[in-house]
Protein 1
Amino acid sequence: MDKFVINGGKELSGTVRISGAKNASLALMPATLLAPGQYRLHNTPGLRDVATMSRLLETMGLRFRREDNTLSVDSSDVRRYEAPYEHVKKMRASIYVLGPLLGRYGYAHVSLPGGCAWGPRPVNLHIEGMRKLGAQVELEGGYVTAKAKRLKGARIVFDVSSVGATGNVLMAAVLAEGTTVIDNAAMEPEIAALGEFLVRMGAKISGIGTNHLEIEGVDALHPADFTTIPDRIEAGTFLVAAAIAGKKGTAIRVQNCDPSHLSAVTTKLEDAGVMLRVGKDFVEIEPLKEILPVNVTTSIYSGFPTDMQAQWIALMSLARGTSMVTDTIYADRFMHVPELNRLGANITVKGNVATVVGVKKLAGAKVMSTDLRASASLILAGLAAEGTTEVLRVYHLDRGYERIEKKLALLGADISRVSGEEF
Ligand code: UD1
């Protein structure tokens, strides 16, 4: 297992290029099950989660080839309609194969993902959605088995806005007979990207990017090429890196992002006292003397993303004053807090609210990654901390950040990966 060693206090400057969105790629890749043939998915990030999704889809007969950032997919020979536990346990997004397998092949046998590091993460809405579309769904032995001759359009109103359930039902509904309406659909840009991709494949969808989707089922789809949207969470993480460790008086450019996807984060950064200049595909950020305390509450898009909550807490740990960070999406997602406190932060958690009392400085220590975004917050804190920070178990970071240490080093950070030992 690798670890990162960061010698903190180096001032960052320069330009960082943002990769394609992990959460979009993880939906686009299984969508290729819906129509046999050749696809090219441009701007696909080189991440462990993308590799895990490829391995899973390979067990079903798909073939992948990567050239630079283009992932070529051949889905002409799908032979197996199963997602075994060995794969699903590695990555919850594996559940995304349920909708397309059921919609295209009328059968899916998919392991239930179970919980994750910070608590339970149910998939009841995915299952209810498939049932509403007329599938016969059984849960047994830790697996979902879903069958249907052909799915039938239905009206689905989600109790909770769910990215995964919206994506899954959308992929199932595009080949259903008749019209499906999804209300309280997720509006996240990654779901909009999936919708656009499906339209390129011949699907009839209206309301993309809104919480009301209407899908008129078609008899067949065809392969298409697509360019994945930029990763708004990676962009947000680098903006916070610039705010926490950027060289005062110089601008850091976060390039190849979509600023319109980032407004919840950029607004809060401005409230925290940084200067921003927003272009068509970049945000330039200039850190000022001190960080001001700013409360955030996570919510569904276009609110502040839960996937930026841990990074925001890292930033607020160095603010001049006290802030409150509330997570309404995942009430238990605060595994990073005790680790940040090991670096000298002063954070307490009660229920789903973290109270962050800003401290003057953080000091390097050994800390442990527990999940993807928690790991990112520890890296950010390590950049600002005095002395050496070791972030152990960085495989979490490799799931969702493409070469994060290389990108940070290009900005001037002193960060290195140490491989091959048991940490
Ligand atoms: C996706 C993202 C993840 C992000 C999350 C919230 C991917 C691969 N992952 O995860 O990075 O943190 O959105 O923006 O895109 N829920 C239910 N029942 C369900 C499904 C969800 O109650 O069947 C609840 C969850 O417990 C949670 C809320 O709905 O409280 C939102 O979760 P959801 O949007 O489904 O998250 P994911 O799609 O798993």
Protein 2
Amino acid sequence: MNTASVAQTTQPLFDVQAVRGDFPILSQQVNGKPLVYLDNGASSQRPEAVLQAMDSYYREMHSNVHRGAHTLGDRATDAFEGARIKVQQFLNAASAQQIIWTRGTTEAINLVAHGLAAQLKPGDEILLSQMEHHANIVPWQMLAERTGAKVVPIELTPNGELDMESYDSLLSERTRILAITHVSNVLGTINPVAEMVAKAKAHGVITLIDGAQAVPHFQPDVTALDCDFYVFSAHKLFGPTGIGVLYGKVELLEAMPPWQGGGEMIEKVSFAGTTYNTLPYKFEAGTPAIGEAVGLGAAIDYLANLDRSAMEVAENGLLQRANELVPSVPGMTVIGTAANKVPLMSFKIDGLHPSDIGTLLDQQGIAVRTGHLCAMPLMELYGLPGTARASFAFYNTQEEVEQLFAALQKIQRLFA
Ligand code: C6P
């Protein structure tokens, strides 16, 4: 065997140590132990490139946008609108006017639910699933209360996949909206959203996909999906908090009334009445989160420079290693065993309360999330008070997975 081929075969597919170096927060001790950050599903960390982009935005060009009065204002506007174009390209949307800034996934769903009220009448149905996050349940319940429509959940199979027979049987002439998560934050299941949207379209149903847990792991293509709305939060995509995205089809966005009133979203204001701005500004009242938009743009640029398919292979390797280690912890059960999952593992251990698992792991420097994970109907379905959840990102290592399981073994031995 020649040395060139050895070098080629031993070359890591995805250089996780190199990317870890991009995330300063990861190289710290917590409770006297090296931090093992496995709470990426709640919020991921930011690379240096995002921190620097926001820092230089505030140091060098901060001003309000779209006022056009001076040089700093023009620079800020260019950076802000440039970030919108980066999101448009990230989602493969046809036009930047389809990208609306919101505070996050939650606000984006509320905006759509508010905007679709006029399209619903009593007896209409809004299809969701039993695996939705509260952010994709409560706004629709509020809409149903206002309009007399009904929220109907699609059932799950025992392993935590959507029951497609249940979906098919629930789709009817009464269905007006399908609001479905791309990836479950509890089960990790990747839902067959393309197939679901195609079926919904055949019934004339408006479709919204909650991409909060999908975008950190793969890049959605809204044009190929043909969904009407796609929403996500920047803080799970290695960007800042306080900003998120609503993608929408132009004709639906045009038909929706404004969400909030104020500056920026108007064309002309008089006491006789107000006319509204064009898309996307019609939905962006008040001074926007400019530095945060710049930070999100930098996160998208950072990801574009990574080999995303190698990253997916590495992430799948983390989940595979975790699955291999489950039998090493007596009494441990994984919640959600779908065939198609992102690297996320919710679990329970007999004799231990999830919040105790979280506290004991934290003492060993390991961060996971515990509780109902903002998915109470799903907890009720599984008869659980809550779960513990380890959610991985591309900067996590196989060693960290092993540390998690070594810690769980210890906790189980001492406390279960
Ligand atoms: N889930 C979790 O730990 P916001 O808070 O608006 O950025 O995202 C809400 C949201 C919506 N949909 C899904 C599928 C989500 O996972 C989340 C956020 C976090 O699972 C915090 S509760």
